[in-house]
Known about the structure:
By secondary structure, the chain is mainly alpha-helical. The chain has 8 helices and 3 strands; from the N terminus they run H-E-H-H-H-H-H-E-E-H-H. Helix 2 packs antiparallel against helix 8 (153-164).
Amino acid sequence: MKTYKRSTFVLIAVLFFVIGNSTSNAQQSTQSLKIGIYDSRAIAVAYANSEMFKSYMANLMADYKKAKEEKASDREKELEKEGPFQQQLLHQQSFSNGTVSNIIDKIKDKLPAIAQSNGVSLIISKWELAYINEEVETVDLTNELVSLFNPTDQALKWIEGVRKQNPIPIDKLNPNHHK
């Protein structure tokens, strides 16, 4: 009789475990995946107008001046190319859909808290979403990410303007279109 009661108890416990897990799995499968998205152009404009970028450019200029004074012609030539390269990169990022991974790296330590507070599993540029099914929920985090660069009112106006436009296809972006 004791074996029968023990077997019945074990069977009931296993059934509760299986039913509990299948209910939990069913609830999980009905929950949609949430991903955070951002407009990379807004991030680029915010960064290009930030103290962080101004500091980077000041250091670049100081390195260039030092290379020139030390007559380090190879380093001087290298730094002479860096300015135009940065300008071209920022044009691709600000007016097209060029990756802003180099900028996001500067704020990556803040991303886990933003993801957690918004209940998202990942954060990605909205221009990088080649396909997304209807079960995936997107949360626009652009404004939160932009705020990490402490944009001025003028920068916010520029960002608003950029976001109202479609990105220029990167292969159509003329490197001299803003000169």
